Amino acid sequence: MAASLLAREVSDLCLGKPALRSLSVSATVGDALTTLKRSRDNYISFWNCNHGHFSEVDKVDAVAALDDCRCVGKVCVADIIGFLCKEENLSNPGIALQAPVSVLIPKTGDFVRHLESNASLVEALDLILEGVQNIVIPMEIGGKNSRKKLLQNNLSKSTFHNGRQYCWLTQEDMVRYLMNSISLFSSAAVNPINSLDIINVQDIPAVHYDDPASSALPLLAKCLEMQTSVAIIDGDGKLIGEISPYKLNSCDEDVAAAIATLSAGELMAYIDFGGPPEDLIQLVKERLQERKLVEALELMEDDSGNSSVSSSCSSSSDDEFGVGRSVVKSVGNSARSVKRSEAIVCHPWSSLVAVMIQALAHRINYVWVVEEDRTLFGIVTFAGMMKIFRETIEDHDLGKALKKSPT
């Protein structure tokens, strides 16, 4: 029964999803930032083609090149912030924003893959387990001729490629679909996660509270690819919070200066709900002056004086990926009490279905695993959860084959 359910087409999971807004890979980092700020999208997709501003003659060539148009990556504000944090870019952020957006797209790894709308969910699951992070699905709107006509009429539209619109199929989409049919997988779903070999305990993205926030940048880049966050721990290894790329998505680009000058614990307070405390803003400015990063300082002052662009992060609690509640906690031996976004946690003995519910409720792709005293034990992700469902399908198919085989 499970195998039959998962043979359904991925188009079933895409109903009602918005079309991808996109830019050409020839766009600049500044173009991407402007587009993200003007839209409600968390990500902008990039394609190896450009359907905008064609002349009437060029339209013929564009239609002929339908099959050459491919999504090659996606970028969010957190990607741009990480790029601006580099020393050479902090020295001259204006020039950095003129760099081609291709500098933000990973050169290695198979992070984006196209699938046809009639592909099965099992095919999508297998891609995720192979390491693909983003799956692009076409939204069907008619046959070949109608596609060509639509393309000719919509070459300037940023959501049309190959005469069709596309959407992301996310890990959350797949896990939510599986959750709705959890009774078919009850034998595995009720087991504790420490019995399922899905807790990552070896490669945990974590930094100490007093470490420079900049030390988290390589981990943040990896977390953006893997759709997780960086854990913040105290001297005893206890989890006290996180730096979430998804939270950075609601910030302005001047937070790059805070990452370059603050500790990890201070950064948690800087990017939390309600905007950064005034004392931290002043501290960032003082440290920028000490390092003679004049243009980064001017960027902060320009934003703080612009009523339309706040230097703080959004206080919305219902953004696409979700963030935890804001609390006040005294951390380790530090004298500072910091306001932080609470990390979502479970325990090694929590059941798989309970962890799935937590992640889906908070719209995150992972849950931190902690001991009773909140010592960080590991992390469990949607990809790990989907591995269990895939193994259940294989076991089911093997059982059917054995029943049919002659004795």
Rg value: 23 Å
CATH architect. name of the largest domain: Roll
Q: Percent helix among the residues?
A: 25-40%
Ends distance = 24 Å
Number of helices: 18
CATH class of the largest domain: Alpha Beta
- Number of spatially distinct domains: 2
Mean pLDDT: 79
- Shape annotation: flat
Percent of residues in β-strands:
15-25%
CATH homologous superfamily classification of the largest domain = CBS-domain
Keywords: CBS domain, Repeat
Protein name: CBS domain-containing protein
InterPro entries: AMPK_gamma/SDS23_families, CBS_dom_sf
GO cellular component, one term: cytoplasm
Characterise this structure.
The protein is α/β, with parallel strands linked by helices. It is built from 18 helices and 15 strands. The chain has a 4-stranded mixed sheet. A hairpin with a 5-residue loop joins strand 9 and strand 10. Helix 7 packs across helix 18 and helix 9 packs across helix 17. The radius of gyration is 23 Å and the shape is flat. Keywords: CBS domain, Repeat. This is CBS domain-containing protein.
Map the helices and strands.
Blueprint: H1 2-6, E1 22-24, H2 29-38, E2 44-47, H3 56-64, E3 71-75, H4 77-84, H5 87-91, H6 93-96, E4 112-114, H7 121-129, E5 134-139, H8 144-153, E6 160-161, E7 164-169, H9 171-179, H10 186-189, E8 206-208, H11 217-226, E9 230-233, E10 239-243, H12 245-248, H13 255-261, H14 264-270, H15 278-290, H16 294-304, E11 326-330, E12 337-341, E13 345-346, H17 352-362, E14 366-370, E15 376-381, H18 382-404
Parallel strand pairs: 1-2, 4-5, 8-9, 13-14
Antiparallel strand pairs: 2-3, 5-7, 6-7, 9-10, 11-12, 14-15
Helix pairs in contact: 7-18, 9-17, 9-18
